[in-house]
Amino acid sequence: MNERKRAISQHIEREDNILGTGNDSANERLPEAGGPARILIVDDDVRMRESVRDLLSMHGHSCEMAAGARQALDLLARQVFDLVLLDINMPGMSGVDLLKELAAEHPDLSVIMVSGETSFENATRAMRLGAADFLRKPYSPADLLCSIDSVLHKRCLQQAVDAMNARLAISEQRHRFIIENSPDIIYMLDTAGRFTLVNERITQVLGYQRDEIVGRHFLELVPPEDQERIGYAFNERRTGKRATHELELRLVHKSSGFLTGPGQANTVPVELNAMGVYDEAKGDERSRFLGTYGVIRDISARKRSEAVINYQLYHDLLTGLPNRALFQDRLKQAISRARRDKNGFALMFLDMDRFKSINDSYGHLVGDALLQAVANIMRNHVRDSDTLARLGGDEFTLLLPEVAHVEDAVGIARKILDHLREPIEIEGHELYISFSIGIAVYPDHGTTGEDLIRHADTAMYHVKRRSRRGYAVYEPSMEVGHNGHPALESELRHALDEHRLEVMLQPQQYAATGRLAGAEALVRWHHPEKGLVLPCEFIPFAEESGLIVELGEWVLRETCRLISERIRGGECEGLVISVNVSARQVLQPEFAERVLEILDDYQVPGSRLELEITENMLMQDLEMATRQLKTLSRAGIRIAMDDFGTGYSSLSYLQTLPLDTLKIDRSFIAEIQSLNERHSIVTGMIAMARELGLDVVAEGVENEVQREFLKRAACPRIQGFLLGKAMPARQLLATYGH
Question: Which stretch of 22-31, 111-120, 129-138, 578-587 has the lowest confidence by average pLDDT?
Fold first, then answer.
């Protein structure tokens, strides 16, 4: 008997551990059957009370005595007892009356009635009123002990059952709470594929009430065209690794009704996890299939985010035109079709004349609005089969897949120029613009995308050098004039030798505090005749001529020299300075080694330097770039992705490269003009970077609205003219008191 009691107690303890319900209040003391118990003896005969007490005490029980019902009630109000030995015949309140009161006030208390009367009626009456047993005086000690042991044993078993039922109720309540409050749809199917259980989440996701779903076949929620493909997965019979995991599919929303045949449906994208449910096998019998358990997750928000990101991957956010990546893809398709069909097509490179002057005179907001207006004008005058793309800045390309002859391409170029002759009004300013257009035709001017773009670009520069505003068809003779530029190359080399270049620092702030967070190194050319020349005027040529490698190394050395001087002066503890590096630099086999040598020459820790790369640079040789950057990252040098969002924007790069920082391009920040507007691209980039453990710098912050928006969006760092233009290092440190 005691072994059975211990087994029950151990089972209860295991349930407590599993369900987490074990506590002092839930686990009342359960006396061992035959073991010590607290017993109240109620009898008006003092000798009887004392003799019973002595007998029970000898067997380890703890006893209290009461001479009558009132005294017994007082003791019960103050103490807890497991059992009451109650005499029926007592003066005042009888044992029967006390038994009635105990049944009302102490329903869990076990009572053994004792009486000198032997009538069957008394015994029956006592048992009906709740007595656990009935003893007739005189009784033997053995009978008393046996009765007490039996009653305590029953009491123990009942308490164990009650505890189990309580735990089962708590367990059921918890599981129901978990299921009903799950962010996912949880369902069960029977062996025929009909719903037997589904939680309330289905109402929010698909619009159905539970009673509309239970009893229906799961295929009624699957579009007809998808039923053959995913039916087996929804009604999954497999378990373990072979079961359905993270399968994307569509389910029919209630607004479409239950579908029984082909038709258009309003569907919701979801992700499915499902597995078969089986009973426990007995002996040699096989487990019996009971149905399917599944979890359905609504991925509508994720799909919308992916659509936004996918659009951003292939479109220029400012104008809505295809970007470089989409243009390159369309160009490859055009070349493949032309080779297959043995025909030609035309490609134009369009560059706005004097755009920089407009930008500097009226500001970036007017410049951006002008680019949008120009894009709309040109978009309205090209065919659906043509691809008008913005490569960046004021550069556009136009792919004409159905134009095989030079004369046809020239005619289109003239029409574009004619449509852009009229002034464009932007914020009260009447702006006159013109374009320089270069034309290349496949296969006459090249059979690869790179050749066609380069030759169209060469023809465009030929127009700019000649007079601007106009068009030109590529000719080989243009190459010398386009690629040579001997005078400019000589001037830039002299500037390097004669120290006419200067590295200035543009501050970066912590958006939350306004403290100095870092700086970007920007090079300026002090020309003896032209005065201060900005990078946008000579960096493109340096890239084209190959001089960018020498120029880039000079900027890197000069930046490290500035850092070294500030370290020695104790002026910029912990300040990190960013330096832009070009594709030509990174793809030099000795690039990483040269950077580490420069750091060593000036005794600058790698953690004080950040190298900025662009997305487009990676397309030239991702493997080489990754290898070089990983070497530098291991030395503590930070790596930043500059102009993020304007190039290829392949998210896989974010996990492949050893990146520390994303720099959001200024074109995205320029769109922020009100705190009440939603700018999901910017906030999405910040959230994505945070999930990847990357720092973020927002470039091009030009007004307080943008600063406040970025602060609210928890953007870590900001940079732009609002904070300050590029300045000498000493001025930067003096301004920010670093």
Answer: 22-31
370 token code pair: 């002008």
CATH 3.20.20.450 for the 496-733 domain, yes or no: yes
Question: 379-435 pLDDT, tens per residue?
Answer: 988 888 899 999 888 899 999 998 878 898 999 999 998 888 888 999 888 888 889
Asked if residue 503 lies in contact with residue 558, where contact means CB atoms within 8 angstroms, the answer is: yes
DSSP summary character for residue 221: G
| pTM, entire model | 0.43
602-604-610 Cα angle (round to 5): 120
Q: Residue 348 in contact with residue 439, Cβ under 8 Å?
A: yes
Adjacency order of strands within the sheet including 133-136: 62-66, 38-42, 83-87, 110-115, 133-136
Cα(91)–Cα(461) distance, integer angstroms: 124
Which of 33, 261, 301, 305 has the alpha carbon at shortest distance from 156? 33
Model confidence over 161-186: pLDDT tens digits? 888 888 887 877 787 777 778 889 99
DSSP assignment, residue 194? B
CB-count burial class (<10 Å; 0-12, 13-18, 19+) for 118 = exposed
Question: Radius of gyration of the chain from Cα atoms?
Answer: 43
Q: DSSP E strands: which ranges in 319-467?
A: 345-352, 387-392, 395-400, 424-426, 429-431, 435-442
Q: How is 555-615 classified by DSSP, letter by letter?
A: HHHHHHHHHHHHHHTT--TT--EEEE--HHHHTSTTHHHHHHHHHHHTT--GGGEEEEEEH
| Domain boundary assignment for the chain | 2-177, 185-298, 308-483, 496-733
Maximum separation of any 2 CA atoms in the chain, in Å: 134
Tokens of 408: 């046809």
Q: How many helices and strands (H and E) does the chain possess?
A: 28, 26
**What whole-number distance in Å separates Cα of residue 624 and Cα of residue 611?**
16
Tell me which H or E stretch contains 521.
Answer: strand 516-527
CATH fold of the domain at 2-177 = Rossmann fold (3.40.50)
The DSSP code sequence of 280-319 is PP-TTPPPPEEEEEEEEEE-HHHHHHHHHHHHHHHB-TTT
On the question of pLDDT at 108 being above 60, the answer is yes
**Of 122-136, 323-337, 619-633, which one has max mean pLDDT?**
323-337
Long-range interactions of 265-271: CB distance < 8 A, separation 24+: 265/223, 267/223, 268/205, 268/206, 268/298, 268/300, 269/298, 269/299, 269/300, 269/303, 270/185, 270/205, 270/296, 270/297, 270/298, 270/299, 271/246, 271/247, 271/296, 271/297, 271/299
Whether cis (ω within 30° of 0) applies to the bond prior to 223 is no
Contact 403, 416 (CB under 8 A): no
Q: Is the Cβ–Cβ distance between 353 and 436 less than 8 Å?
A: yes
CATH 3.40.190.10 fits 185-298, yes or no: no
Q: Which of 3, 722, 43 is nearest to 363 (CA)?
A: 722
Q: Are 329 and 401 in contact (CB under 8 A)?
A: no
Helices 324-341 and 449-466: crossing angle in degrees, nearest 10, is: 110
Superfamily of domain covering 308-483: Reverse transcriptase/Diguanylate cyclase domain (3.30.70.270)
Quick one: pLDDT at residue 116?
76
Q: What is the DSSP string of 88-131?
A: S--SSS-HHHHHHHHHHH-TT-EEEEEES---HHHHHHHHHTT-
DSSP string, 160-182: HHHHHHHHHHHHHHHHHHHHHT-
